[in-house]
């Protein structure tokens, strides 16, 4: 906002406040003062981190310059809410609206507190005048009484005087206006006639103590019923006036009408606790209600949360525009409010396209599931929004448990986790919180967090499993298999951490380390066994195969270790290598041209484009071990498995590829695969994965 924009906002503010309060300044002086306030509000709105203190101080200053009426405050709050973002040329996003609401609330808070202090100062002056009247001499008494009469009659707050029997003796015009009764009617009433059904017991207990002379004053917020059926809220101070001997003589009540202020506060609270777009309760109100449920519960009470996220909303919002997205959210909110209702249920918008349903007195998991099913059914019907027929689903995470021992943070965390499960399981469904699954995922998280340091500390090591010729039983190659020597959990196989490494991206650095270790060991075998040394086969994860530095890393490691490229084989899964169909194959071709062998691992379990396969720079197929199961027993071999394996081998040979059978555990399997034409086998029949020393001995024994 430039200086001209700020001056225009200040001018609009001055115009809005015109006539709402008596202010001893000229119009130019008022506008100049408000221009300074505008600078402070704008700076607060744009502050980072966001700080509402300047807005609170502006509220105090408005009282100081005599803008004291509720109308002055209401027009100021309205102007800020309706004009500030437009003048600043800021989009009306939830974040900016939230900041504007924060400024409104802070300004109101400062205004109300300053107004209250001003009123209390006036009340204290009046009370002092009453006390002065008791102690003054006769002439001073007449002067004091005249002064009191003037204050009594002209005071903006209501004043009532009663005797110690509770009869109302005198009232001023302000009290007549506040109570909506005539002076004669009020003077014919007793203090006890002013009781209201909603008065707390403490009000009348303090009053009785004052009448008995046990206290000199008390202050309460109290409501009174008016003859027209309305209710007026007041802030009341009742004081005891004693005679010269200290005995109770009169009671004086000072009563201020705070109805407008309370209504404004209630409106502001409603705005602060409700989503401005959907009008549903927001995160703040939801957490307040949830906290109250957790605090005020019985021993057998249960609570349930259904945390919901819309499926497909982002596509609609991005493609059709945010205005359509906002209208869709409103329609979804209306439908949720229509199907989920009851005093013990709350539907709230948490932000974005996330909603939550609170079941305060849950009857059990079945009830929570029923609510989730109701919501999913309600969302099945398309929405008509802005001339579009839109369909959105939802994923819902359900947490249902006893209230005892729970916190709002724990419930929200578990609901959020369960919502993620529902989305990862396929969307358009609900998922129930499972403590065992959560514990497993937490353990995996801790495991993944420790992997980078474990790699630096050298906790990983490599075992090797031989690939044996099915006809001559010589060791043709070895597969490198990484392990983790975890200091607490012991030896961990790759199934425990490879997936985590892929998710975190650590697989690239871990894979590079494995490649270097495997090539270094293969070079030892190359030096020891010469031309009969086996090649080493290293698995590449999908993320590694997409790494732009892959070719350079392989070349550098081969140069560093001195291993012949033909002694290195890189294994990719069928789905990974076929995933390069729409991507450049330069990396695989470069590796192949370098002399490195390329193998497809677990062949037969994915979805291969056979026409495309013949153009890939592949040297070997490794048939998945699952096909070996049907060939365990020579007499009861599964003819279907046998036919599938034979077809795969024929296909590989037609493409000029060699074949390795994985998972060979019986002699029958080995013989059958040899008969089919498979060149090499890998499995427990030949050797389990072992250390470099064990595999070195295995190779030597086969050569002997």
UniProtKB/TrEMBL annotation:
Domain named GGDEF: residues: 301-435
Record domain PAS: where: 144-214
Domain EAL: 444-703
BP term (GO), one: regulation of DNA-templated transcription
SUPFAM superfamilies, per database record: EAL domain-like (SSF141868), Nucleotide cyclase (SSF55073), PYP-like sensor domain (PAS domain) (SSF55785)
Domain PAC: 218-270
InterPro entries: Biofilm_reg_signaling, EAL_dom, EAL_sf, GGDEF_dom, Nucleotide_cyclase, PAC, PAS, PAS-assoc_C
The protein's name in its UniProt record: Diguanylate cyclase (GGDEF)-like protein/PAS domain S-box-containing protein
Lineage: Bacteria, Bacillati, Actinomycetota, Actinomycetes, Pseudonocardiales
